[in-house]
Write a sequence for this structure.
């Protein structure tokens, strides 16, 4: 799946302004399935009826107890920033209209980005060391 430069630029501007949902919405409307799913999770994170919210909440509470309430959106914003950087690195030539095309990241790249964002956000914001050695 590919997106165009104008879509990437819109998403980057929204991310830079702190509008994580808006950035995912732009990408989802361009056909990005991962962004569609991420948007659902973000919009439903506080909905007790949402299965997506319950899965994410349970995972967070098990892996980083107590961090979900204070770090969830920071992790989401950092992960989205990294996701947009991954897209920007994957230029794929021009459209018929002369606009740059970009390949979307694969699931391994997405998982690595999320893991990195989680570690950085939770540990840096809580002033805990990045390793357990200190």
């Amino acid at each position: 799946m590919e997106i165009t430069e104008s879509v990437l630029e819109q998403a980057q501007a929204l991310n830079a302004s702190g509008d994580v949902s808006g950035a995912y919405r732009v990408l989802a409307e361009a056909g990005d399935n991962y962004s569609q799913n991420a948007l659902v999770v973000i919009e439903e994170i506080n909905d007790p009826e949402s299965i997506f919210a319950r899965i994410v909440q349970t995972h967070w509470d098990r892996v980083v107890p107590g961090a979900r309430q204070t770090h969830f959106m920071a992790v989401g914003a950092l992960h989205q920033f990294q996701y947009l950087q991954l897209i920007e690195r994957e230029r794929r030539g021009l459209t018929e209209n002369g606009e740059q095309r970009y390949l979307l990241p694969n699931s391994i790249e997405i998982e690595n980005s999320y893991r990195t964002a989680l570690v950085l956000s939770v540990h840096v914001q809580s002033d805990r060391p990045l390793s357990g050695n200190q």
Summary: Residues 68-88 form the longest helix (21 residues). The helical segments are 5-16, 20-29, 33-44, 51-63, 68-88, 107-125. The chain is about 65% helix and 10% strand. Strands lie at 2-4, 91-94, 100-103.
